[in-house]
Structure formats: structure tokens, C-alpha cells
Design a protein that fits this description.
The chain has 249 residues and is an alpha/beta fold. Helix content is 41%, strand content 15%. An eight-stranded parallel sheet has the order 2-1-10-9-8-5-4-3. A hairpin with a 2-residue loop joins strand 6 and strand 7. The chain is globular, with a radius of gyration of 17 Å. It starts with 7 loop residues before the first strand and ends with a helix.
């Protein structure tokens, strides 16, 4: 981790609370919980408004989810520059498009092309996984392994440890094998307050400290709370408290 011990949160976690009338209040609430960064998932709708709101909150955005492989690449990079974002991460693809080698090769080519263009402006491109990249196989290997082998080394990886686990990966083997290509981790302490059942159904919460320790090249862990059954903020706050302790341990 960096000396600042940054801690991010994917704004999709609070997607119901970041409309125009609620953005400032939600960002202030996240900053008060101890997050230093947010990871936006929409930087095209109103980048100037988001930049102003971030300045008011004191939060920063070093990364963003944006499908630069298929969106207007100039618009994405312009927005990233305005927001001070240095890494644009492909958030998800349709699983059907990478069901065979040709599809995986096409995706890798598109991401590599975007990375080359972004590099001209001092911005990196990354990729964020879900479960299907590990659950689907091509030529006897997980799609994720084939895909990563085809990526330019300049493309960084944001490993979502829970989705990787859902897909059948052993993250304790995966992270050391990927090495310094992993620059960001998506993490979640998968418990709702007062509920011992894992929300996502994969119980590695007790080993999150080990996971963070494996990511020696990780620049920032990013909390993402996707599934919740009630008010999301108690779960976000419990994650903030847990991971503040981990990154400052």
C-alpha cells in the first residue's frame, strides 16, 4: 500500500443515494466513514459536476469503471482527465462474448488498443473481473487465464476477490501468480450487521487480512457492496471500519 493508506469505495455500492440532490450528502458521509477515494461507475453523464462534488467532499477518484473498450474513447479519457483519474477500468463484459477463443482474443485486442490510446494521455487501462471469467473455460483453462495471457503488460488488473471466488478461483493461488499486474483489489466484508450469513454466499471474510497481504503491488483496496437486503449504509460503514484497520495494520 502507499504511505497514505488509501481506501476506496465503488460508488455503485451507494447507487441509490447519488442523484443530483443527494450526491454531496452521500460523499460527505463516505468521507466521514474514513474512505479517501471513490471509484465512479459513470464519468460521462456530468463529469464537471462530479469533479466539483468531489472537491467539496475532500474525496479523490484515482480509478473509474468505464467501458472504454466500447464507449467513445475520447469522451472517456477527457472525463478521466477532468476528474484526475489515472486508471480507467473495464467493469464488465457480456459473458456470451467471451465464450470461445475468438471472443476472448477480440476483447483482449480491444482492451490493448484502448490502453495504447490512453497511455498517450498518461492514463492506464485496467480490467475488473466477475465470476464468469473463472467459471467459463476455453481450451481447458479459465477464460480469465487466457484473457490475461493476451493482454499487453501495460493493462493492469483489478481483481474482485469475491467474484473470483464465486467463479471457483482460489484467490490465495491467483494473486501470487498474477503478481504485480494486480494494482487494485475489490473487497467486501460480506456480512450485514446483525446477520452472520454471507450475502454473496462465499465465506472468505475471515481471511481478508491475508488477501490484502498477498497483494504487495496493490495501490488501493476498493470496497464494493453489491448485494444488500436493507439500508446499505450500515454495511458500508462496517466495511469502512474493518478495512481502515487492515490498511493501517
Amino acid at each position: 500500500m502507499t504511505t497514505e493508506h488509501p481506501l476506496g469505495i465503488q460508488l455503485y455500492s451507494v447507487r441509490d443515494d447519488i442523484g443530483p440532490a443527494r450526491l454531496d450528502g452521500t460523499l460527505a458521509r463516505l468521507a466521514g466513514m474514513g474512505f479517501t477515494h471513490v471509484e465512479p461507475y459513470d464519468i460521462l453523464s456530468d463529469p464537471a459536476g462530479l469533479a466539483a462534488a468531489l472537491r467539496r467532499s475532500g474525496l479523490r477518484a484515482a480509478t473509474a469503471h468505464a467501458a472504454i473498450n466500447r464507449l467513445d474513447q475520447k469522451a472517456v479519457l477527457d472525463a478521466a482527465e477532468l476528474l484526475g483519474i489515472k486508471t480507467v477500468i473495464v467493469p464488465m463484459v457480456d459473458p456470451k462474448t467471451i465464450a470461445d477463443r475468438a471472443g476472448v482474443e477480440a476483447l483482449a485486442a480491444a482492451v490493448n488498443g484502448a490502453a495504447a490510446l490512453a497511455a498517450e494521455r498518461g492514463i492506464r487501462v485496467g480490467y475488473h473481473n466477475h465470476d464468469f471469467e473463472f467459471a467459463q473455460h476455453v481450451d481447458g483453462v479459465p477464460v480469465y487465464d487466457l484473457f490475461v495471457s493476451l493482454l499487453d503488460p501495460a493493462v493492469v488488473l483489478e481483481v474482485d476477490v469475491y467474484w473470483a471466488s464465486v467463479g471457483g478461483a482460489d484467490v490465495f493461488e491467483l494473486l501470487p501468480r498474477l503478481g504485480d499486474r494486480v494494482r487494485f483489489l475489490h473487497v467486501v466484508q460480506d456480512r450485514e450487521p446483525g446477520n452472520d450469513r454471507p450475502v454473496l454466499g462465499v465465506d472468505i471474510t475471515g481471511r481478508l487480512r491475508e488477501i490484502l497481504a498477498l497483494g504487495t503491488s496493490v495501490e488501493m483496496p476498493v470496497v464494493e457492496v453489491v448485494a444488500h437486503h436493507s439500508d446499505v449504509f450500515p454495511l458500508v460503514e462496517s466495511n469502512a471500519a474493518y478495512f481502515r484497520k487492515q490498511v493501517n495494520a
